[in-house]
Amino acid sequence: MGSDFCTQEAVDEKVQKAAEVKEEFSTKISAQNLGKKNPEKLVVIGGGACGMAVATKIRRQSDFEITVLSRDSHTAYSHCGIPFVLSREIDNFEKLIVKSPDFFRKNRINVRLNENVRSIDLGLKTIWTGEGIYPFDKLVIATGSLPFVPRKSRLNVLPYGIFTVRSLADGMLFEKAMETAEKVCIIGGGTIGIEFAAAFARRRIKTILITRSKHLLSRQLDPDIAEIVRAYLEALSVEVISGEQVVFPEGFWKERILQVGDKQIPADLVLLASGVKPEISLALDAGIEIGKAGGIVVNEMLQVKVGDEFLPYVYAGGECVEVTDLITGEARLSQLGTTARRMADVIGNNITGKRTALGPLADPWVAVAGDLQFGGVGINSEKAETNGIKLVTGFSRGRTRASYYPGRKDLFIKLLFKDDHLVGAQLAGGEGIKERVDALSLAVMKKATTRDLLDMETCYAPPVSMLVDPLRPAVKAAIRNIIADDQTK
Ligand SMILES: Cc1cc2nc3c(=O)[nH]c(=O)nc-3n(C[C@H](O)[C@H](O)[C@H](O)COP(=O)(O)OP(=O)(O)OC[C@H]3O[C@@H](n4cnc5c(N)ncnc54)[C@H](O)[C@@H]3O)c2cc1C
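Above: the input record for the complex with flavin-adenine dinucleotide. Below: its predicted structure, written as tokens.
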């Protein structure tokens, strides 16, 4: 993304500088390589969920000399917790830091923050940051994603008042800006936009959520389940506008007005949560293959591809790589902390000699907005239609506790079957969503049939469930729909 703004002069200067540095160091590196054996050098680019987990895993399993390079000002923190600091359910951003710099020092992991990697030289096996050259025996690229800023809006985006929140530092900056804000506009109807909307509503800040899709969470949920999320947000006094594109007028920073369809909406702050795209610029410049979905192409061991070959000494993981979809078999992205963490295990094992493969993914996910939890796994109806997959669904509305037990909440379950096999599930409710999504994730992975799900034994205690889990009526509804569907054939 950054390169879009580079002038030719700047590019030439960079190339020239890189060539000089290469020459200067190639002799040094060759000499070093001659004498070197142990310990081997591991360089990780990216100090986020995948990068830090790779570093710590490899530290536990080997004697590599480990360097992590990150342009972020913090490391080892939970991105996922940012909305909950902004909602003030978590006291401050420091609480999201799960491992201190001291932990890494003690574990002989050299973490270099605020250091931007400028280029990877695969031939010389070196990384150049502008501040230094780092030789490697093994390299891990875990550069994550960049917030997606609609191309049309770029010129008008980024003046004061318009924010993206990807890192802890972004969160802190936004928190500061919110101190004086009375009205915030969020652009993007995905999980993160919704979590932020609920957070601001909790602080009684007037919040407007705008999505250009027809309904919220259009990449994950069907309209009927998304409607439950919308109704909940509206009950929190969040204004939800769907099916409309936002235009940032030239002088947004002065006038603080957005054009949404034929409406003008004043806002003190705008938060862009319109998705992310993989940060692949370094890999691309190094000649590493980028796939159709926009991420780095990797094999099942998460090794990157150059020409016809997967390199046994360069791995990539996290949001910057492509994965294989379990249901459609197509290459896609997986923008989840859980996937990044899993990939770190795979990379760590492969680098330390325990051959491990990453298979196709179904991406179970869950999000929490105020008192509503929602989540899912596998394919949704829109994606199925695009891929020519015919689905039959089953829906149920149940409760989360026994009828007499106080505090019971609604629970909505939608199951999606292809040829009688479970290929997707979508849930929303007041509690008990994560556990059910996880169970259904296994069912999708194991290609469970309606019969398997009917035969599934579930547990019960009044404060946590109904005697008959609401999952069962959803399966029964699907069976009725499958029979009805067969009869119309
Ligand atoms: C607000 C928010 C809430 C989220 N909530 C959830 C959730 O509830 N559940 C869930 O599963 N996921 C959630 N996610 C997604 C999850 O955080 C990401 O999927 C995960 O962090 C991806 O890990 P990663 O290592 O690929 O990328 P990141 O964690 O983003 O790490 C990328 C790293 O690369 C560094 N980098 C990039 N380019 C360079 C360069 N040229 N030089 C040096 N360093 C570089 C960056 O500085 C960063 O340190 C959330 C994300 C956000 C932003």
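Notes for the reader.
Confidence is low (pLDDT under 50) at residues 1-6.
The longest helix spans residues 8-35.
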